[in-house]
Amino acid sequence: MTKTCLIIVDGLRYDTAIAECGCLAAAVEADQARVWKMLSCLPTISAPLYETIHTGLAPVDGVVAWIIGRWERALPEMDFRR
Questions:
Q1: How many CA atoms lie within 13 A of 65 on its CB side?
Q2: DSSP string covering 4-70, please?
Q3: Global pTM?
């Protein structure tokens, strides 16, 4: 059985990760880890995108984005996208 660890750093640019995450870069060089560049999708808020990682659903098809949209319509004075 293989152990897997998925490391997600929210808001970290790819070039910054490559330049600044030396421990992870060393693991990649030692063939103990892999790195790949991913593209985000809209909305660029964390919860729907984490749901996408876990379920494979596009954010517009997921429950989290639907709930956020529902709250935005109910409470337009609140900024839910911060």
A1: 16
A2: ------TT--HHHHHHH-HHHHHHHHTTS---------SS-SHHHHHHHHHH---GGGSHHHHHHHH
A3: 0.51
